[in-house]
Amino acid sequence: MSDFEVVGKVSDFEEGVGKAVPVDGRMVAVFKKEGQWYAIDDLCPHMGASLAEGYVEDHTVTCPWHAWRFCIKDGTWEDNPRVKVESFEVKVQDDDVLVRAKDEPEKPADEGEPAT
Ligand code: FES
Fold this sequence. Notes:
Blueprint: E1 4-9, E2 19-23, E3 26-33, E4 36-41, E5 55-57, E6 60-62, E7 69-71, E8 87-88, E9 90-93, E10 96-100
Antiparallel strand pairs: 1-10, 2-3, 3-4, 4-8, 5-6, 6-7, 9-10
The structure holds FE2/S2 (inorganic) cluster.
């Protein structure tokens, strides 16, 4: 079972704005939204943009490069829900924000039908 890693202080994060942080050797996009915390893989599966730099509306982040949209709650690609990026557990302890690293990569998601 992997451990939580401290990724910053609560005050390092802005409401509704993503922030990329290193967790266990990879970048994870952390979002604070309406009092809740979320973390998904920072790497857009399309061409590798940072999802933390995307625009957040409701619980959707839009990739800054080509506007693929992902749910910040669970990483689902909203234009093709059979595909997701990884999501991570987040917790706040005292003033620290912590993200739980993954033990090993999840199985690759089903590619599904090509987007048209
Ligand atoms: S790199 Fe994210 S949509 Fe293209």
